[in-house]
Amino acid sequence: MSWFVSYVRSSVGAKQLMAVTGLGLVLFAIVHMIGHLGMFSGRDHYNAYAHFLQGLGGLKWIARGGLLTIFVVHMITGISLARANAAARPQKYVVQRYTRTTFYARTMALTGLVVLAFIVYHLMHFTLGWIQPDYFHHLDDKGRYDAYSMFVLGFKNTGILISYLVAVTLLCLHLAHGAGSWLQSLGLNHPKYAVLTKNAGPALALILIAGYLAPPLGVAFNLIKL
Fold first, then answer.
1. CA-to-CA distance for 140 and 101, rounded, in angstroms?
2. pLDDT, one tens digit for every residue, the chain (226 residues)
3. Backbone phi, then psi, for 145, in 5-degree steps?
4. What is the architecture of the domain spanning 2-220?
5. Where are the domains of the chain?
6. What is the pTM of this model?
7. Quick one: how far is CA 185 from the chain centroid?
8. How far apart are CA 13 and CA 7, in angstroms?
9. Which residues contact 21 (CB under 8 A, 6 or more apart)?
10. What's the CA gap between 67 and 28, in Å, rounded?
């Protein structure tokens, strides 16, 4: 295992580990987004989807454990790389000039911290029921947890809606930068696919932002309602 520890502690190894774990988080975000778009299909469809996930039993906890592991590794590796970059350049430039990096590439550390805070809040709200306990674990007419009503009632709150819109936008921009750079980090980049890799991040950002913001905005504009 010593070779693996040495590998992940190296700059190249850490960047590749960031790429792999980041890709895993991007894939989860896409699947999670598709599930939430089921809100537009109505209460019965969305509650059936939520009931299916709850019924996975041990598999659900294995998936959650795996996702948590990926997230923690990604976060720790990101902090390590940020510290290494700061140590390599102890004295900042008098005038900072950015030529090729994008805005969200330069703010990855900041958006990462915001994303962490949002994920903790999101779990407290919809998974643990600590934010709006009065709406948590009610049953629908088929005896299933009424996740649909909890979603609608939650986003009727203007403060929750606005915080979600801001946080999810930052989350999507954070994931988009990772999606656009993971091939390069893994050494799989090629001039033939330069256009694809350059545009992959912004394209994914638009898809994720639209997909994640559509359901809560649907609630806000009464397209999704009880």
1. 49
2. 576 777 777 777 788 888 888 888 888 989 999 999 999 999 999 999 999 998 988 898 999 899 989 988 888 888 888 777 777 665 554 445 544 555 556 667 677 778 888 888 988 998 889 999 999 989 999 999 999 999 999 999 999 999 999 988 888 877 776 666 666 666 656 666 667 667 777 788 889 899 999 999 999 999 999 9
3. -60, 130
4. Up-down Bundle (1.20)
5. 2-220
6. 0.83
7. 20
8. 5
9. 70, 71, 73, 74, 77
10. 8
The CA distances from residue 58 to 18, 122, 141, in Å, are 28, 22, 26
Residues 6+ apart with CB under 8 A from 64: none
Beta carbons within 8 Å of 77's beta carbon, 6+ residues apart: 8, 14, 17, 18, 21
Amino acid 50 reads A
